[in-house]
Amino acid sequence: MTASRRIRLIAPSGYCVNQAAAQRGIARLSEAGHQVENLQAVTRRFQRFAGDDQQRLDEINQLAELDSLPDIVMAVRGGYGVGRLLESINYPALQRRLQHQPLALCGHSDFTALQLALLAECGLISFSSPMLAGNFGAEIPSSFTEQHFWQALTSETYTLNWQTLTPDQGTWQGQLWGGNLAMICSLIGTRWMPQIENGILVIEDINEHPFRVERMLNQLQQCGILARQQAIITGSFSKSTVSDYDQGFDLDSVWQRLRAQYGLVVVSDLAYGHEADTVTLPVGAQAQLNVSEGNAKLAISGHPILRR
User: Fold this and answer.
1) 108-140 tens-digit pLDDT
2) Active site includes 274?
3) Active-site residue 109, yes or no?
4) Is this model's pTM higher than 0.85 or not?
5) What is the number of alpha carbons within 13 Å of residue 107 lying toward its C-beta?
6) Count of CB atoms situated within 10 Å of the CB of 154
């Protein structure tokens, strides 16, 4: 049984079109004994966004001013919009407050840009994790996703095991980082791209054809980011549909080209991303990756945890 938590919602990106899912998520979390606050984030709207820029920015900056911090700050959904806020976030205030009272900042997709900016500016480790509407509010919630979420937030060290088709074998260790591939690429050349040396980069995306995935990876390679990593782990690339025109050009061929042309280690098939079943990863933690005969193991530590 998970301990009761105080969960504060934020919506820094798109308006939550699926209001029913968000309400299901709130109900499920409440029924499990958690206190869910800042419910206005769910219904607030301006154009395609969950409020105007100032409202969404204030919601982030106010985390440094709350009388008492929640256990968890959870994004309602992704979409688009965080990138409009990055230059106005009060990073020094957040760093001062959160270094003494850490919390679990949780979300994925568009939220990746905020997570990487906080890592670059403040050294803040956050969680690439399920969100309110799409995951906790799913019509049929995933016990796999929920179990991995609470495990990541409450375990000083934890290990993920999965089957992989990668031909690579060996052991690599470094700082774990990444998230949504498109959002990572959107930060290239900005101060909000973390300068990770010898890291383990985890990537995922949705609605991106394999050629677009390869194009983004080319950009990361050509600006020197991929060459500085120990290994790349690929999660789910949902709805990356190929056609007869592709003649076998699929995601596996993209991964193979990275190995053959650049000598990169690419470990595939982690259940992570925009699917019902997804693990939770602390962005900025330490990790050791081991691959042997199709079995991958990722041991993670050094991230903030909630009291049990």
Assistant:
1) 999 999 999 999 999 999 999 999 999 999 999
2) yes
3) yes
4) yes
5) 27
6) 16
